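Run log, item B.
One chain of 807 residues. Sequence copied directly from the ordering sheet:
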Amino acid sequence: MPVLLLVVVLVGALIGLRFLDPAHLPVAVMALVGLFAAGGVFFLLATVGGFLRVSSEAEPEALPYPIADVLDDACVVVEDERILHANPAYQKLFLGAPPQTVTRLFEGNPNAAEALYRLAQAVTERRQAAEDILSMPGADATRYRVSVKPLGPRAALWIIREVSGAREHPEHTFHEVQHAVDYLDHAPGGFFAMQASGSIVHMNATLADWLGYDFAKVGPGGLDVRDVVVESAVAQFFPASGQVPACSIDTDLKQRNGTLMSVRLYHRIVARADGAPGASRILVVPRAVEPVVVATPMMDEESFAGFFNTMPIAIATVTASGEFLWTNSAFTQLFDTQAKPERRHIGQWIAPEQRVALDGEIAQAAAGHVGNAPLELGVASAEGGSARVWVRPATTASGGAVAILYAIDTTEFRQVEEQLAQAQKMNAIGQLAGGVAHDFNNVLQAIFGYCDLLLSNHRPTDPAFPDILQIKQNANRAASLVRQLLAFSRRQTLLLEALDLSDRLTETGETLTRVLGERVAFDFRHGRDLWPVWADFHQLEQVMINLAINARDAMPDGGKLTMRTENIPADEVAALGIAGMPNGDYVLIETTDTGTGMPPEILRKIFEPFFTTKDMGKGTGLGLSSAFGTIKQFGGFIDVRSAPGEGTTFYIYLPRHIAREADKKAEPSHGAAATATAMPAPDMTGQGVILLVEDEDPVRAVSARALTARGYTVLEAASGVEALQIVSESTQPIDLVISDVMMPDMNGPVLLRELRKRHADLKVIFVSGYAEEAFRNDLPEGENFTFLPKPFGLKQLVETVKQVMWG
């Protein structure tokens, strides 16, 4: 616009010069030039001083200031840190002081720094943005939503809105909705809503009361409009397609007892998105001359008796002495009072030591006092059990009643609680047994090693040779006990494979027949088409032998042991009631004997290590505990049922195995099995540098002597840290690392990962008293190593070293 004005003035001046006298023309031209020069100097100084601005960009969008002034949100238009306009709501934020920019408003607030920076970046990038800012730290801070919108090239509209109430009190809206629903349910008029099909999805309490229905049971899928509206008026609730009326209907409603109720219905159908009739809302107003007063009718004696006897909570009234007066069906079933009706005193159904506490609660109730906490009582019924009992004062003393007993059967809860406690106890014992077995394995390893050294230096004709051999044989017996402890703690070495129990248990049947002897008959019943299981057959066979030995000892005068197998599909697992057993397909191995059976106090301890009912010297107490651990290590479960004089039944559930490619990786391709089956090299001597890492000094010393005697150079390390130091300082290449798995500071898997960083192709042999599976998961997928379980002989050690180093 200024440029256009300048052009008009210049053209007008030139036209005017043409009409001047030529004599005055020079003076007029000079005056015109001076005028334009003075104007140019003025505009130049005004522009430099900021009084005028020249821009080639578009002007800011015009803000409707009158609209902004009536908004409740604080609004301000800012251009280059200059406030162009601030509405009254924004000015109030400064308490009468001149308004400043939003940045100055939140200046000094650490909560706002990052948010204001992001908003400023949005203004620079000419985009909209919004941030939440707290006015100050603490729970009482006000929360603001600050948003910014660009206006033109450099101006921006800032809006500040307080959102504390909407953010911090969402429960207010929820409570309001609850109140609205409560108001509707207890309104003086009836109301119900139905789907297009006629199914009633909601009925308020007022209408349910009028019609005689239980309000708690009226809901989706319960009633239909045809159940409450007379047949002649039903068609009006289903208009023809395309019609969505709102109308009133005078008709009758059918009450539950068959009588009719005259009403006026205000019916409205809500149309769906496609225009078709959808759900309906119906308001019900009784058509009565007199005002309708809806009162809750008193329950007659017959109705109350039905209500009282069908309650799942056991209820009884008692006298001051504890005698039953009135009981419902649940109480009769819980305390089994029908079995012995002469026992009418509550004390006759609970343990004697608990009667004092119950009598005290009844006395308190008789005095009008309410007890604090429920009593946990053992119920002396036919099946036994437990109950949680509340004692409350009787409202009336009808028939001498002074207290009301409310009881809930907690038998199943207690059983689950006991099963959980037993599982935790067994787990703790297993950890202890595993730790003892690991430490004892190190002791046995040293004994085995030094026995082998002595035997290699003595001929069979030497007098000391039989003594040394006897020491080693006793060490082998101790190793067998350690293996049983490891089995209980689920840390034994397993050779897992897919097993067909039909064939493999048939082979075991011959062994079990010999174990049972002639006085015990053995009957084996095969299930049809048994699923395969993933297990170690030799360990499973040992479990079956342990069960057979216990069954034989429980039948000193002879008897019968029955074994059967069966598939248990997943849909039958829940009915078994075994705590912690996940749903899935299982294969059952069941053994039942006709022996003496076991009482409950013995049954609870049979899987604990070293617990035995046999005479001194006739059992170690590790048979069933190792069987328990072995089955658990297979991923299975073992359960037992027994009673004195009724024999004992063991149930072994093994998960169904579904073959997959990963199983090939799980099969042991090296370690103890590979060593045992490998053909020993005729010459056990060799050359090379071996790093031996073992924290037990005797084990490390005897292993180093054996390897050095075969020609190897042995570098000894007492820990993983020391081993890494030896590797970094060694001037000769290390050909093989033999490392214990469980060591302080740095265990075997961590040591292997550190060694792989320096020597990716280093050969490694792990030795441990635990199973290979106990630490394999700590190693990277596909890690190559050889495993040698403790305790092992020196011959087995040198054979494994020879095989790993020379193939």
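Observations after the first pass:
- The chain has 27 helices and 27 strands.
- The first strand starts at residue 74 and ends at 79.
Flagged for discussion on Thursday.
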